[in-house]
Each structure stands twice: as C-alpha cells, then as structure tokens.
Amino acid sequence: MKKSITVCIVIGFTLFISRPLAAVPVQTFTGEWAISDNSAGTSFSIDGDGTFDINLAWWGYSVNSIFAWDAIVREASFGSAGIVSSEDGNGYTVSKRFVLNDLIGPASGNLNGFTEPGYWMEWGGPPVEGGEFLDGTRGYVGFSFQIGPDTHWGWAEISVDLSGDPGDGWLILYGYGYETEPDTPVPAGAPEPATVGLLGLGALALLRKRRA
C-alpha cells in the first residue's frame, strides 16, 4: 500500500512541474451561441477587457438562381487578431481545424485576418464548396490576439450547421479560451488540461501530510 501511494506522489509531482507555473489557460465562454445570416457578425472580447478581438459571422443569401453562404472567423478590427489558416484546393483561405488538446501557437500555421471554416456557392453552374468544417461536427479554430503589447494564443470551438434552404444555416460557437502567459501555446479546449496541475497539488499535499 505504501509503495502505491509513493508512486502516485511521484507521478502527480512530475505532472505538476512539467507545465510552467505562470501558464494558466482561461475559458471565458461556454454555452451555445448561434450566429446566422449577418455579414457584420458578432465580435468578442476574449479576455474581457472590452476590446473586441475576433468576429464570427454567417453570411447567406439566395437571389433568383444565385445561392451562397460563408461561415466567417476573422479579426474584429484591423490588426486585432490573426486566425490560424490554411489554403484549400479552390485557393480560399480557410480556418485550420484543430481537435481537442492540439497545441495552438506560433508553429500552428499561417495567420490571417479573414478565414472561412466553410463556404458554398452556386452561380448557375456546378456548386463550389470548401472549408474544414463542412462535415458539421464540432472542432476548434486557433487564433492570436493582443493584450497590451503582448501576444496571446486562444481557441474557439465551433460548428457549421447547414440545415434549411440553400443559403440558410448557422455558425455555432460553443466556447472559447486563451492562455494568460504571453507567447505560450494553448491546448485546444483548455482549461481541461489544467486538472493535471490540480493532481500535482493534491500529491504535494499528501506528501506534506505523511511527513508531518
């Protein structure tokens, strides 16, 4: 029994010290926010300081035989944020898709002020579509933004809902968060990984209790 307890202490302490003490992922929104048919979109202050950082929008339209929609993740104002992006086969700048616990940081990819997690258009010919969120399942986009002079990294969990008539649909936001330590990559979906630190704290408390 004593050997098992000792192993738990060592593992917990190792996990605790493996992450910089100053790095604290913060989740600032959870829920379900549906954004539909509004090219102006909705802007969000990621750290709550009142300065808008990123903007999410859904722009759908249907006129005669022209149908189209764009799901948009972009900076809220010029230079306010950069969205991690890639280029698809059609030459469009799309939002790069991350999965839970993927690290989002300087090595994640190119940053752009305007990206599309999904798009579809039909101009009287064959439809053109693209984006990494077309399957409708939830995923994460990554971004950087400024707090004062410092660059911070964040994530937003979204999905694209294509229900309805051509041109109709939703961009749904489920949550977002960021890393409070400047220039530090953040795991997509954090702060769930922060429970590792709690495990380490618990192990240290147990160690002090046994030594008392």
Explain how this protein is built.
The radius of gyration is 21 Å and the shape is elongated. The longest helix has 17 residues, at 195-211. Helix content is 16%, strand content 47%. The strands form 3 sheets. Strands 1, 5, 6, 8, 11, 12 and 13 form a 7-stranded antiparallel sheet that branches. Strands 2-3-4-9-10 form a 5-stranded antiparallel sheet, with no helix packed on it. A two-stranded antiparallel sheet has the order 7-14. The protein starts with a helix and ends with a helix. Helix 1 crosses helix 2. Strand 12 (150-161) and strand 13 (170-179) form a beta hairpin. Residues 1-22 and 193-212 have low confidence and may be disordered. The protein has 212 residues and is of the alpha+beta class.
Q: How do the helices and strands line up, and which of them pair or pack?
A:
Blueprint: H1 2-17, E1 25-35, E2 38-44, E3 54-63, E4 66-75, E5 81-87, E6 93-95, E7 103-104, E8 110-112, E9 114-123, E10 128-130, E11 139-147, E12 150-161, E13 170-179, E14 186-187, H2 195-211
Antiparallel strand pairs: 1-13, 2-3, 3-4, 4-9, 5-6, 5-8, 5-11, 7-14, 9-10, 11-12, 12-13
Would you summarize the structure shown here?
The chain is an alpha+beta fold. The chain contains two helices and 14 strands; from the N terminus they run αββββββββββββββα.
Main sheet, how many strands, which sense, barrel?
7 strands, antiparallel
Radius of gyration: 21 Å
How far the N terminus sits from the C terminus, by CA atoms, comes to 19 Å
Beta-strand content estimate: over 45%
Q: What count of helical segments does DSSP give?
A: 2
